[in-house]
Every structure is written in structure tokens, then in C-alpha cells.
Write a structure and sequence with these properties.
By secondary structure, this protein is of the alpha+beta class. Helices cover 44% and strands 20% of the residues. It has 14 helices and ten strands. The structure holds zinc ion (ZN).
Length: 404
């Protein structure tokens, strides 16, 4: 296939020598806005869904930048790797879902018959992820604003949920050296199923953001996601976390009207650990838990704290320390442990959805056996996984408008 004419947008500037052919014609260099000289029609093989296609297109050279350029490549939406937009999206989709090797050697080959190298899949996937990150930073939204039909609680009020957690990603330093893992945040706005809402037949809706974020920036971006799906229209706003460092401040700062709840199961785990230290006897331990776990749910954190303060942790230093830490934890977080009210209202008291998002968004793809990542690659994959696992219109809107 030969592309015979040049695109209108890059109409060559006429010069006295133009009649002799393309020699002397020029186009505007996108980098420096100077004239770039026409050199020749240069051939290039493009990988499109039907396989490789050879094209010849005008090639220019900018003397100021000392660089060659071919405006047609941009016009056709070609990636730097000579992949058509459809192949770039498919390669990124494969690279988002599975390892780059499996994507190249199995998925793309079996599903499309295309041979795209592992390094091309890696590059094009990471480029796309970096683009998602940059667009989010530039406050670009994907898709139209669409208010969710929020689920209703036991009192019939509409409820919106937000949550934040973090997951460690294994990293690789320069020259394959080992460096410490880094925490990738996963934040979500979601509309879970409700047992009190029979009208809500929609599947669970979620928006995710993930990457090596700085918390202030993540907050700005999460608020935009929330705004896009009508967070402010919900009658009740709920923010859940496991009580990790800085999580409560993050949720309070970004969602000041939300009720902050600390994950019930994390709190219960503190009691389980304390029971193990306090009671050597299995039956004693179990009977203590049988009293205190229901108390946490039906009477709340302050009631359990009052009980804890009655305990004598005994002489063993490790037990005394664990006891001290547990009491302090309850003192610090008891205002987010009003589980009797939350349950009565029909609200969720577990941060299960964000914990499972940490697995699906980050863990399942980035923490495979033997996988180690550079900062940029991991950050890019987190953005792309979060986009892919959010509502499908998010992925589609990104690829429709920002394919290169
Ligand atoms: Zn230039």
C-alpha cells in the first residue's frame, strides 16, 4: 500500500522550486516551529490488525533540531513502535492483564495472529500507563459525568463509599540490585450492593486510582472521580480504612462530611492477638473472644476499651507491651468504632472491597513470582490496572481520545 498524498494539515509551504517535485517543500517542525525540509518518501512497516503493511510517506528534516520527522505517522495515530492504534490498545490491554511475555508469546499471537515483541508490549503498555498518570495529573477526566444510583441503607438514605489502602510492590534497583519495596496506594469510590435496597439491581460500581502517589495529589484526583459520579448528591457519605498511617487524615481532609469507619476485622484482629498472648489455654482464649468480638460489634469500641482497662496483663514483658499497644489503639480509634450504630443504619463496616482491590489492581499483576519493577514501570501499570478495573467506559474513553 502506498500513501500517495500528504495530509492537508501539513500542506507543504510552496517555494519557487516546488514544481520540480517535493524537493524544496517543507512542513512545520512541531518542536521548534521552524520549517523542516522535505527529504524523500520513506518506507516504513506498520503493524495493524491485519498484519504488517508497508507504507511510503513524506519524510522531513529539521535543521534546527537536527531531527527527522514524518507528520503522517501522527496523522495515522501510530505509536513510536509502528503499531496502529488498534494494535497499541490490544497490546496494552494484554500487558495490563498478564505479563509482557505471556501477552506477546501467547495472548496476542493466539487472539490476533500478530507477532509483537515482548519489549514492544512492555513499552507500549508502560507508555499508555504513563499517559493515564499524566492526564489525571492534568485534571483530565475520562468519559462524561454520570451520577451513580447510590445504594440505600436501612433507613432508605442513599450512601456513597470511599476508601484507601496501600500495597507493597517489589522493586529492582540499578544493575538488577535489590531495593526495598515501595507502597502503591489504591483509592476507590464505590457503590456496593445493599441488602436493604431491592431496587438496586446494578452490578457493584467502582472507580479506582492507583500508583506511587503523594497523598495530597491522590486526594485531589479522588475528589474529581467522586464528583464525576455524583458523590455530593448522596445523602450519606462513608469512608472506610484499616486505620493505617495517615489514612484517617486523608479521608477526613478530602471527604469532610463523611462518617469515617475503621475496618471491623482489623480491630477484631487486635483482640485475637491479645487473646493469644493473654491465654495459653485454647478454651480460655476462645471463651474470651466469644465475649469480646460480639461486644465490639453490638456495644462498640468504647465498651471493649473499658473491659480492656480492667485486665492485668501479667509479668511477661512482651505481653505487657502488646497489651499497652492494643489499649492505645482502641483509645486512638474508638471514635471510628461505633459499630452498633453503623450496623443499625445498614452501613458496611468492613474495608474488604479496598483490600480486594489492592489484590486485583496491584497484587495480581505486579507481584507475580519473580517480578521486580522500576518506579516508572510499576507506577504506569498501577494507573492502567486501575483504569481497566474501573467501569468499562473509563478504559474506552481513554483509548478513544488519548491513544497516543
Ligand atoms: Zn525543529
Amino acid at each position: 500500500m502506498c500513501i500517495a498524498s500528504e495530509p492537508r494539515r501539513y500542506k507543504p509551504r510552496s517555494t519557487p522550486r516546488q514544481k520540480k517535485g517535493y524537493q524544496g517543500a517543507s512542513c512545520v517542525c512541531q518542536k521548534c516551529q521552524n520549517d523542516a525540509r522535505f527529504v524523500e518518501r520513506r518506507g516504513r512497516t506498520i503493524t495493524c490488525l491485519l498484519g504488517g503493511i508497508r507504507v511510503r510517506r513524506p519524510y522531513y528534516h529539521c535543521a534546527v533540531c537536527s531531527e527527522g520527522l514524518s507528520p503522517w505517522d501522527q496523522e495515522l495515530g501510530l505509536s513510536k513502535r509502528c503499531l496502529s492504534p488498534a494494535v497499541a490498545e490490544l497490546s496494552s490491554l494484554a500487558g495490563t492483564v498478564s505479563s509482557f511475555a505471556v501477552s506477546a508469546k501467547r495472548m496476542l499471537l493466539k487472539m490476533t495472529g500478530l507477532r509483537v515483541s515482548e519489549s514492544s508490549v512492555e513499552r507500549v503498555t508502560e507508555d499508555a500507563g504513563a499517559r493515564v498518570g499524566k492526564l489525571l495529573e492534568d485534571r483530565i477526566k475520562f468519559g462524561a459525568d454520570r451520577e451513580w444510583k447510590w445504594q440505600r441503607d436501612a433507613l432508605g438514605r442513599t450512601c456513597a463509599y470511599a476508601s484507601l489502602d496501600a500495597k507493597c510492590v517489589r522493586r529492582q534497583g540499578p544493575k538488577a540490585s535489590r531495593v526495598e519495596g515501595r507502597m502503591a496506594y489504591v483509592a476507590s469510590i464505590y457503590n456496593p450492593d445493599s441488602e436493604y435496597d431491592e431496587t438496586q439491581k446494578k452490578p457493584h460500581q467502582s472507580r479506582y486510582l492507583s500508583g506511587f502517589y503523594e497523598l495530597n495529589e491522590l486526594g485531589l484526583q479522588l475528589r474529581r472521580q467522586a464528583g464525576q459520579v455524583g458523590w455530593d448528591k448522596a445523602e450519606v457519605q462513608i469512608a472506610l480504612s484499616d486505620g493505617g498511617n495517615g489514612m484517617e487524615q486523608f479521608l477526613r481532609r478530602n471527604f469532610p462530611l463523611a462518617t469515617i469507619i475503621i475496618d471491623f476485622w482489623h480491630v477484631k484482629e487486635y483482640l485475637v492477638e491479645l487473646a493469644k498472648a493473654l491465654f495459653a489455654d485454647e478454651h480460655e482464649r476462645q471463651s474470651w473472644m466469644d465475649r469480646h468480638a460480639p461486644m465490639l460489634k453490638h456495644e462498640g469500641g468504647p465498651a471493649v476499651l473499658a473491659q480492656l482497662k480492667e485486665i492485668d496483663p501479667g509479668p511477661i514483658a512482651a505481653t505487657r507491651e502488646l497489651y499497652r499497644v492494643t489499649v492505645q489503639y482502641f483509645e486512638n480509634h474508638q471514635h471510628k468504632m461505633d459499630y452498633p450504630s453503623y450496623v443499625k443504619n445498614g452501613w458496611q463496616i468492613g474495608s474488604g472491597p479496598i483490600e480486594s482491590a489492592c489484590r486485583t489492581v496491584v497484587g495480581d499483576r505486579l507481584n507475580g513470582s519473580g517480578m521486580r519493577w522500576g518506579n516508572d514501570g510499576a507506577d504506569a501499570l498501577c494507573h492502567l490496572r486501575a483504569l481497566f478495573l474501573s467501569e468499562p467506559d473509563q478504559w474506552d474513553a481513554f483509548w478513544e481520545k488519548h491513544r497516543n
